[in-house]
Write a structure and sequence with these properties.
- A two-stranded antiparallel ribbon has the order 1-2.
- The model has no long low-confidence stretch (mean pLDDT 89).
- By secondary structure, the protein is mainly α.
- Helix content is 44%, strand content 2%.
- The chain contains 9 helices and 2 strands.
- The two termini are 33 Å apart.
- It has 2 domains: 38-109, no CATH class; 128-223.
């Protein structure tokens, strides 16, 4: 009887195409390449916290780690006024409070498991809401700002800052073309922000804007 062997090498493959293999096995049934897929909701959030340098790796032990629930004497919840809250934390997403009555916003947007039922396999969607969330959500803006501060501390040169951001977010150096496009964007954005006069530090704001682009890119949220 023929038996397939799934070796550790299989888990080390990239998702790059090979014309010869593609012609022989277009569905990748023989696992000649990695199946490209999106990170799950918890991993996207944790990755953002990690690259920004804000990830709190501690566990919520003791009184200091508990969610700040209101005192029992203040409970006035009814079926028409149910308890609902979102507690901000920089701990790993596994420690996020989830309520059965309403999903945690980040996890809901990126197909987190429904706490009301068993979820043997999560669905993976691609929606406009996800893109808008990454562009506008306060959490993403905060991680982009911290990432900008992190790369700014290493060098005053825009190209080196861009390359450091690529190393942190993508695990690779920026290509010459990417360096050119990113540094050009920084210069143009800084100039426009300076003319508008709506921010105190146009240079830092421009860099944070670029960091949002990096954190919301397909390369950041997909595994190749």
């Amino acid at each position: 009887m023929h038996r397939e062997m799934l070796l550790s090498r299989t888990y080390q493959l990239s998702s790059g195409d090979d014309p010869k293999n593609m012609q022989a096995d277009v569905s990748n049934s023989l696992l000649w390449r990695y199946h490209r897929h999106r990170l799950d909701a918890e991993s996207i959030r944790d990755a953002m916290l990690s690259v920004s340098g804000a990830l709190d790796r501690s566990t919520p032990a003791g009184k200091s780690g508990e969610h700040p629930f209101p005192p029992r004497r203040e409970w006035k919840y009814t079926q028409h006024r149910p308890f609902y809250a979102v507690y901000e934390t920089n701990r790993r997403s596994v420690y996020l409070m989830q309520q059965r009555i309403k999903k945690q916003p980040f996890l809901e947007t990126f197909d987190g498991a429904d706490p009301n039922t068993n979820t043997a396999e999560r669905s993976v969607s691609t929606t406009a809401i996800q893109a808008l969330f990454l562009m506008n959500d306060a959490f993403v803006h905060e991680q982009a700002r911290k990432l900008a501060e992190r790369v700014s501390a290493g060098s005053p040169e825009p190209s080196k800052r861009v390359n450091e951001a690529y190393l942190l977010a993508y695990g690779r150096s920026a290509t010459p073309e990417e360096l050119k496009l990113c540094t050009q964007y920084l210069a143009e954005c800084r100039a426009e922000l300076g003319q508008a006069g709506k921010v105190e530090d146009p240079e830092r704001a421009a860099l944070a804007s670029l960091m949002r682009v990096i954190l919301s890119s397909n390369e950041f949220v997909f595994i190749d």
